[in-house]
Design goal:
Elements (H helix, E strand, L loop, with lengths): L4 H4 L4 H7 L7 H31 L2 H10 L1 H19 L8 H14 L2 H19 L10 H18 L19
Helix pairs in contact: 3-4, 3-5
């Protein structure tokens, strides 16, 4: 049996995917991948439409009420999410199951600076939006208000952590109990 190309270069199998193209997947795995992409596309498109409508209209309650009345979209979304959870996320993906993935993403967000990065990104986006859309502010914010908002970011992070270092989460967005 011939050795794998990356072992000849002194590298590991983990680094091989960047250096060498992956082997063709079996047709069954290709079909599974296509189905997963299609289903996740359904979910992502619903999220994208909601964000777009919010940017255009700005009235979250109105947009959400309209969304909740759209039974066709809700059914399509629910079916896609259930199929993804049952048939795709339950399988291990790149050595990590969905529960392990949720844990690692939560740790990254709450304990390793992910939340700070997300807040910084939101602030940059808000600054860019404010520069591109001239608005008249009826309630100008003072520097002390702004700095207290920034300190609130870290307090929210601290509130999510138990003294033992455990993260306390409430999952309110699941379409069913997949844990």
């Amino acid at each position: 049996m011939e050795p794998e190309p990356w072992t000849q270069l002194g590298g590991s199998a983990a680094g091989a995917s960047a250096a060498f193209p992956s082997r063709p997947q079996p047709p069954r795995e290709q079909e599974r991948q296509r189905q997963q992409e299609k289903l996740s596309g359904v979910v992502k498109s619903v999220h994208r439409r909601l964000r777009k409508k919010y940017r255009e209209v700005g009235d979250f309650d109105k947009i959400w009420r309209e969304h909740c009345k759209d039974e066709e979209t809700l059914c399509e979304y629910a079916e896609a999410m259930k199929n993804l959870a049952d048939n795709h996320w339950a399988k291990t993906c790149e050595g990590e199951g969905r529960i392990e993935w949720c844990c690692s993403v939560s740790r990254e967000y709450f304990q390793n600076g992910g939340k700070r990065k997300a807040l910084e990104k939101d602030e940059k986006r808000a600054v860019l939006t404010a520069k591109s859309v001239p608005t008249l502010s009826l309630h100008p914010t003072s520097k002390t208000e702004s700095s207290s908002e920034n300190s609130n970011h870290s307090s929210v992070t601290d509130e999510s952590l138990h003294p033992s270092g455990k993260i306390r989460l409430l999952d309110v967005g699941s379409c069913f109990n997949h844990f």
